Amino acid sequence: MDSVDLEVLRAATQWCAAGHLTLLGTVVRTWGSAPRPPGSLIAIREDGQVKGSVSGGCIEDDLIDKVRSGELRPLTPLTQTYGISADEAHRFGLPCGGTLQIVLEPIGARSQLQPLLDAVLAYQLVTRELDLATGVASLRAGSHAPQPIYDGRTLMTSHGPRRRLVIVGAAQASRYLASMAQALDYRVIVCDPRTEYLDQWDVPGVELSREMPDDLIVRLALDVHSAVVALTHDPKLDDMALLEALKSAAFYVGALGSRLNSARRRERLALFDLTAEEIARLHGPVGLDLGARTPPEIAVAILAEMTAIKNGVTVAPSRREALPASATMPPDAAAVAAAVAGNGHCAT
Q1: 24 and 137 Cβ atoms separated by less than 8 Å
Q2: Where would I find the H helices in 20-154?
Q3: Which are the contacts of 14, defined by CB distance < 8 A and separation ≥ 6?
């Protein structure tokens, strides 16, 4: 599964290589309640085909109409602003007071999109700098920038996986979590020293490690853009990984387990060189309390919680009572629910 940005870059590169006139649009500034944040991308072909979005509605339609009619065929990058007046904001379906500015550039060899795409596919972080006067772009190794830097003459954008997710364990739930995380622009690393698990891995685009999880986490030197989720349900692997992850700068550390198992895990962790504050960082049971039962639902719950924390949204502790699965499910599903609960996510 591709992230939105990757889909846009791939489409623009392929259309250009096939000889189509292609424009790449980047949201560079927003004021008020703009529908899409700075850095959002859109690719538009001369026949009106489009990939990505900058507003989710009428602005795309306006750009498509202008490109298809030939009104918008620039030779060098230009800047378009939408929503300056209340009438225009209403016309383009922008929220009250919403305004956004887009840099539109014609794609060609000087755009450096193919090298950029190659670097992103290789999980590299790249900074792209575009000279608006000439349309010439340059690339260099970069770090994650939360939004574009634009001064009217040059546009600097950050590309590549913005965050890392280390998944400890290569079981079924890990497959769904890895696949969904890639769609959210995470560089995913799955660590499992158990050969019988890792040999069965079949999700493309994921880095695999057979190291002991704690060794891997130390080697990676996790930063504030990193997350760790332990899913083996084996204390010998999960606890050692958590010991190192909780001491790191990772913005999210979670572990699969019921409330009872999570409480016991915290007791074990307290026996080691972790402070109470570090142990309190552990999200366990992992994920938002969505009543998740299946591996895909568990993955959704985990990523929902990670996304909330990444976006600075306070996640309140669950108030749902720890009911057995059979109390909330039909009798014929109780056995299945109990098996999933035994893997640790639901409250038991």
Answers
A1: no
A2: 58-69, 86-91, 113-121
A3: none
230: left (phi over 0), alpha (psi -120 to 50) or beta: beta
Length of the chain: 348
Would you state the pLDDT for residue 337?
Answer: 38
pLDDT reported for residue 330? 38
CB-count burial class (<10 Å; 0-12, 13-18, 19+) for 185: middle
pLDDT value for 325: 37
Whether the Cβ atoms of residue 84 and residue 101 lie closer than 8 Å to each other: no
Segments in the chain below pLDDT 70: 1-3, 32-35, 56-57, 84-98, 316-348
* Dist. CA 148–CA 79, nearest whole Å: 14
CA distance 319 to 336: 24
pLDDT at position 82: 85
Say if residue 54 is exposed, middle or buried (CB neighbours under 10 Å; 0-12, 13-18, 19+).
Answer: buried
- How confident is the model at residue 194, as a pLDDT? 93
How high is the pLDDT of residue 249?
Answer: 92
Count other C-beta atoms under 10 Å from residue 200's C-beta: 11
* pLDDT value for 339: 37
Domain ranges of the chain: 4-159, 163-320
∠ CA 282-288-290, rounded to 5°: 150
Q: Which two tokens stand for residue 168?
A: 């400890």
Q: Which fold has domain 163-320?
A: Rossmann fold (3.40.50)
Tell me if residue 151 falls in helix, strand or coil: coil
Q: Which amino acid is at 238?
A: D
Interhelix angle 213-220/235-245, rounded to 10 degrees, is 20
97: left (phi over 0), alpha (psi -120 to 50) or beta: left
- Residue 223, class by beta-carbon neighbours within 10 Å (0-12 exposed, 13-18 middle, 19+ buried)? middle
What pLDDT score does 223 carry?
86
